[in-house]
Amino acid sequence: MVAVSHPVNSAVRLLLVLNMRYKISVKNFIIALIVALTIIASVSAQSQRRDVDIEADDGFLLRGTFFDVGKSAPAVLLLHQCNGDRKGYDNLASLLAAAGFNVLTFDSRGFGDSSSGRYANQRSLMDAVYPKFPEDIAAAHEFLLSQPNVNKRSIGVVGASCNVSMAVLLAQRHPEVRAVVLLSGPVHEAGKNFIRKSSDVAIFGAASEDDGQAVQGMKEVVGLSQNKASKLLTFKNAGHGVEMFAKEKQLESDIVNWLKARLKETP
């Protein structure tokens, strides 16, 4: 992260010079200072966010966005649902970064900026790319851990819909993943067994009653967890996966606060 102390001091000095030369009123001086600080803060925030390329094990490039908070901190990996792309997490990623998390979100193979050819329909696309998801996510996780400001012992993952099982699989494979957020998706049997046996991993589940069996599935998964911090939120008419963010305005903040409590414990 670019430090803002030097630009702030420069802005204040410049405004003082202008005040001496042009006799700016106190009111106008304060207004100008506020505007300058707002611009500096905006530029600083933008400098923390950068688009990245992540190379999968077969050489395929996954396009992503990394939010660097500029200091050693926990990190969160965001896995989007299969009727969208990483843009569905734009606001959540910004909230997490503002809360002090390093954040990586990327377009899964075949989606968004990681498109991989033409397919007749969604099923043919999923048949072609879904088997690659586990190793693609492993590559994204490795990229995240390679960033110098990431606390490698304190990782969270958010998975929506088709990537719910993938989020659990990542936790199975990597013990540094200590908090898992699941939005409206099924978990495979191996994942359920892992959750049942692993008290170290906390689960946050959310689903809406209008979304088929999603609530029932989330209740089962969260109920399997032996971690006391595991939590379930259910809604009515909120939609599927990240669609819930638009209907349930508090959900993203609830996720951020839950992850803060789970991941800030590790130094």
Describe the structure.
This protein is an alpha/beta fold and 267 residues long. It folds into 2 domains: 5-45; 49-263, Alpha/Beta hydrolase fold, catalytic domain (Rossmann fold). Helices cover 45% and strands 21% of the residues. It has an 8-stranded mixed sheet with strand order 1-2-4-3-5-6-7-8, with helices on both faces. Strand 7 (202-208), helix 8 and strand 8 form a beta-alpha-beta unit. The longest helix has 22 residues, at 26-47. The protein is globular, with a radius of gyration of 21 Å. Mean pLDDT is 88; it is low at 1-7 and 42-47.
- Under CATH, the topology of the largest domain can be stated as Rossmann fold
Q: How many separate helices?
A: 10
Strand order of the largest sheet: 1-2-4-3-5-6-7-8
Q: Please describe the biggest sheet, giving its number of strands, its sense, and whether it closes into a barrel.
A: 8 strands, mixed
**Helix/strand structural class:** alpha/beta
Termini separation (Å)? 20 Å
What does the overall shape look like?
globular
Task: Produce the secondary structure layout.
Layout: H1 5-22, H2 26-47, E1 49-55, E2 61-67, E3 73-79, H3 90-98, E4 102-106, H4 122-129, H5 133-146, E5 150-160, H6 164-173, E6 177-183, H7 189-197, E7 202-208, H8 214-224, E8 231-235, H9 243-247, H10 251-263
Parallel strand pairs: 3-4, 3-5, 5-6, 6-7, 7-8
Antiparallel strand pairs: 1-2, 2-4
